[in-house]
Write a structure and sequence with these properties.
Blueprint lengths: L7 H7 L18 H11 L9 H12 L4 H11 L3 H8 L13 E6 L2 H5 L2 H12 L5 E2 L5 E6 L11 E3 L2 E3 L4 H12 L15 H8 L8 H8 L6 H13 L7 H10 L4 H13 L34
Helix pairs in contact: 2-3, 2-4, 3-4, 3-9, 4-5, 7-8
Bound molecules: FE2/S2 (inorganic) cluster.
Length: 309
């Protein structure tokens, strides 16, 4: 829930005095006027101010390493929301941290494919090395370790990310070596994508502020070579075997509809129809919301929904 320390709104909603967003540690650097100016710069990017909330929360994390009560208050003030509303968002998404994060965030995928290939063994080994459990930070402040759900890189399983950059096809020893290097202050190159920064640095990027001095430096950073081989392997096998996916039913229908009509002409008809005024006499009551069977049509005769055996 969204109750925050000292938040009357949160307590009113939940009846709880405790909160999943922890009070600020004593040595937390305060948010400054610069933070507020950058928050306003983010807000100006959106036609509706509250759309800026997600990048603003990343901005708060870039300064304080987590979404602090002070950061929640700043977002609420600038957006005209209650702290409970901001807290509801901040506590919903796992990318927003409720406790101060270490210099690096190490996420180990323990979802199905990574797990059967050793994800849990990797997580357990790192947890033992760091002396932490899920979502805890090593005593030296270097690493916060977390389990992650599927990181959308199953073809590179088992996957570990550091500050959301990918380190593919890990095993226990390579992951332990990676974390040991991070703790020494090194920044091993990710398998693909942009160079590693740190949790606050990536939070700043996610807030929409570049880490790089100019556009050329930014382009050079993300244009690093990467391996696509595991992703392309299935495609190559299919090519060798002459296999292809069956056409989608809609594409067959579209081909039949446009047969005999040049593509440009068909597109012209479609766009003309899109721009045409609604037929006179049409009202909201005429519009089927899709939950009713059209009059005179038996269920199951449209190819949708249950039919008679
Ligand atoms: S299961 Fe790990 S990336 Fe999908």
């Amino acid at each position: 829930m969204s109750a925050l320390p000292g938040s009357a709104e949160g307590t009113a909603v939940t009846g709880l005095d405790s909160s999943p967003v922890e009070p600020a540690p004593i040595d937390l650097p305060p948010l400054t006027e610069q933070t507020r100016l950058e928050a306003r710069e983010i807000i100006a990017r959106y036609p509706v101010a509250r759309s800026a909330l997600l990048p603003m929360l990343h901005l708060v994390q870039s300064y304080q390493g987590y979404v602090s009560p002070e950061g929640v208050a700043l977002c609420a003030e600038e957006l005209g929301l209650t702290k409970a509303e901001v807290g509801a968002v901040a506590t919903f998404y796992t990318m927003y941290k409720r406790r101060p994060t270490g210099r690096h965030l190490v996420s180990v995928c323990t979802n199905t494919l990574c797990n059967v290939l050793g994800g849990k063994r990797i997580f357990d080994a790192l947890a033992a090395d760091l002396g932490v459990h899920h979502d805890e930070t090593a005593a030296d402040g270097s690493i916060t370790l977390e389990h992650a759900e599927c990181l959308a890189a199953c073809d590179y399983a088992p996957v570990v990310t550091v500050d959301y950059e990918f380190y593919d096809q890990q095993d226990v020893e390579s992951a332990r070596a990676l974390v040991a290097a991070l703790r020494r202050g090194e920044k091993p190159a990710p398998t693909r994508g942009a160079p590693l920064t740190d949790f606050r640095g990536i939070s700043r990027q996610l807030a929409g502020f570049s880490q790089y001095g100019d556009a050329a430096a930014a382009r050079a950073a993300v244009d690093t070579p990467g391996s696509l081989e595991p992703t392309l392997r299935g495609l190559r096998l299919a090519e060798q075997r002459g296999e292809s996916a069956p056409p989608m039913p809609r594409s067959e229908q579209s081909a039949a509809d446009s047969s005999g009509a040049p593509a440009a002409e068909a597109a012209g008809v479609e766009s003309a129809q899109r721009g045409a005024p609604e037929p006179a006499g049409r009202s909201l009551a005429d519009q089927n919301d899709g939950t009713e069977t059209p009059a005179g049509q038996a269920p199951g005769t449209t190819g949708q929904g249950p039919g008679k055996a």
